[in-house]
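To start, one record:
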Amino acid sequence: METTISVKHITKVIKAPYQRYKEKMLSLLGRIGEEDLKLMAEQPGTAKDRLAELGGFEDLMLFGVQEHGQLLRLAGQQRSAIQIILGNPLVALQMTQYDIRAALYAPLRLLIYEVSPNVLNVEYDLPSTLFGQFGSSEVLETGLLLDAKLEKLFEASLADPM
């Protein structure tokens, strides 16, 4: 079976030094660690409480970072670029309990890269367009909630740079 979907892609252009903006964005996110993931498997009740405490701004957490700028050095390019993997397991649960396919897009991805000195792009796919394909009102509702969370995160990342 094959399905074609339409995804709304967001690109925000900002004027800021790359390193400072990256640090600000990362500072807004809570942190989830291996021990938290292990706790989910071993003590689900305790894990739920622990996960509720971990969230950062808008209850979003950092799952991982991919330094694409470093990867591009293998091709001889000097670029500053980072992919941030973010979300919240409890929010993912709100969707995957209704449709496991939502796990394809949870956690979310955000890309920050330098276009020119002090000019950055912040890009992501709008969650509601990713999750909306599954035809579940519960999943779509959570996708819309994530749309708003990402917009608020972006706005907060612009305030009072570090």
In short: The chain has one domain: 9-158. Helices lie at 18-27, 34-42, 44-54, 68-72, 89-96, 127-131, 137-158. The mean pLDDT is 94.
